[in-house]
Amino acid sequence: MTATADPPREAFRLGMLLSDTRYRSITIQIIVLALVVLGFAWLVDNTIRNLEQLGKGFSFAFLWAQSNYDINQKLIAYDSTSTHARAAAVGILNTLLLAVLGCATATIIGILAGVLRLSRNWLVGRLMTVYVEGFRNVPLLLWILLIAAAVNETLPPPSAFRGENATAQMLWGSVALTNRGFYIPEPMFSRSLGDLSVFGLFNISLDFMAILGALIAGIWASARVGDWATRRQFETGVRPAVFWPRLGLVVLPPLAVLVALGFHLVPPELRGFNFRGGIHMRDSLIAMWVALSLYTGAFIAEIVRGGILAVPHGQTEAAYSLGLGPTLTMRLVILPQALRVIIPPLISQYLNLTKNSSLAIAVGYMDVTGTLGGITLNQTGREMECLLLLMAFYLIVSLTISAVMNAYNQRVKLKER
Amino acid sequence: MRKITVLAATAAIGLGAAAQAATLEEVKARGQLNCGVATGVPGFAFTDASGEWDGFDVAVCRAVAAAVLGDPKAVKFVPTTGKTRFTALASGEVDMLSRNTTWTFSRDVDLKFDFVGINYYDGQGFMVRKDLGVTSAKELDGATVCIQTGTTTELNLADFFRINNMSYEPVPIETNAEAQQKYLANACDVYTTDASGLAATRATFEDAANHIILPEIISKEPLGPLVRHGDNEWGDIVRWTLNALIAAEELGITSANVMEMAKAPTSNPEINRMLGTEGNLGAMMGLDKDWAARAIAAVGNYGEIFERYIGEKTPIGLPRGLNAQWTQGGLMYSPPFR
Fold first, then answer.
1. Between 20 and 30 A from B64 (CA), which of A11, A52, A112, A138?
2. Span A64-184+268-412: which CATH code?
3. Is the pLDDT of residue A303 over 90?
4. pLDDT surpasses 80 at A54
5. Three-state SS for B18?
């Protein structure tokens, strides 16, 4: 029941694609899209032709050929008779190990440094400023090389631990810090459950799974107790003291499993050229881990500081006036609001750390860039295939990290109703 | 980093037109030879005090440049690591590689390269500190071994330890210089590479006498220059330039007397054919008739090159051994210039 009639529809003319603003943007988008598709097609076509001219087909069959090379750090069984695909898997696990270790320590360092940089203590604040600025403003590669060189040149070689008048001593008789890395005691089980072979591809330690299972069960039970305490608090107004029972529920089940499995530590011992037994944290792993953690930690520190400063001071004052103490204010008022600001940039720092781990080849850490993108690429001459696989791997890892962190962000962000 | 070379070269495969055939025309048009060499191995490829590239492998590049372009200095040297060298050659970034590279079946056939000859017969050896008390490579069970990654030595090493039922801890290294630093810091017990490379590296140590090269040679490493597969004309030029250097020693042609001999025919017809005073071999491969004379004048014959850079009078002090002329009990043997 409109009073005004629609204006007469103008017949569509070809010229309107450019002259009419209703169509122009669509026209431009279609043209650009066509150009992009053409560009890609040209790239792919050109690549295939050039590879053909070089006499190289495009095939991933090389992945199933015997690799013929050894890798020092391997989390799954591997030797020089394994396939290139398995070598790539060893590299992938090494990359993921470094990424997980690095993200964990970088977060801890970052939060500590970020909070301490806000400290009213002049010395502490300045020290943290020096740390943040020093690490943020020097290329990561230099830090990696510096730390690797420091480990190699300053720590004693394993031979220094030998003989009557050894110049180096093991710490507590069980930890050896050498220039080839750190040797630490290895956890062993005298009543081990053995390993579970997954499709014959790799083994999962059942001992580890049992401990993990007990821990998860404990945390779940502890959370239930917490819920119960909250309900009681709502009903009666008094929160029952459940800290110690909850702690016990988390700690005791894994402890019981450890005792049942006969847990003990086996220290490394010097035999032949090197220490044998124990866990060998190689100099390359240490250099990468420390450098990545400190470097990314400096960025995270700034993010944390920014997040805390982003919460208006009025929030603190309001909390105080309600009678909350500083700790509770931090936990219940400041941190939840700061997290909303912190999480998104934190995601990109985790991504950066994971991608930066590909610098590992500089110190000979055999990550996926070192195995698939290094030795395999070189020995098989399959540059295109290897690099495509590598890019796909980093893409998948990065997208996974993003997805997980975004899900977490959904939980903590401001609930809009 | 070095990774970038691989990436760039791979991108070049995608973006650029692959350099095929007609490398000779390209080099001539450019007025410069692009030659891939090592990043630095004493005696074999190094930069001298004035920053000029020099060495046993570098001399081959200079000889080819002299033969093709008439100027041994018309070379752009591209330092490559064990990892980047093949991509650099395959993508056309360099026209030839002359950098202690082992001739193997898969490199020749699968990687699509052509090895044009052998300029050094080598084998893989092990270097250890004397105070370890090791006298044989069979005693290296459990040792930490520094190894240049992306090389045949990496594969030989894995085979050697597996066959002998020994374990080891490989420490992958990119360049000779890094390996030297790690080895000297005692971050590895053993450094393994071609025996010539070990001798060359040891020669630069302050305490060279405290390091020994173990007697075992665990592989055959025929090292030689290589080009891309598919441009046979260019391959011929590099092959016969190398052969000319080797034949020159056999025939007694040196950098000192080559210009004299090239002026007028001598009594030896093979010398005449090679130096262009009889027939015209050069024209058959698209060069002028003085090509070989220029190459020899620029760098000397094979024996002169050997003695100048790695021979017994140099700090590296390698004996001729397998690399003597076939007439002296060695393996250096050029096919006839006919």
1. A52
2. 1.10.3720.10
3. yes
4. no
5. coil
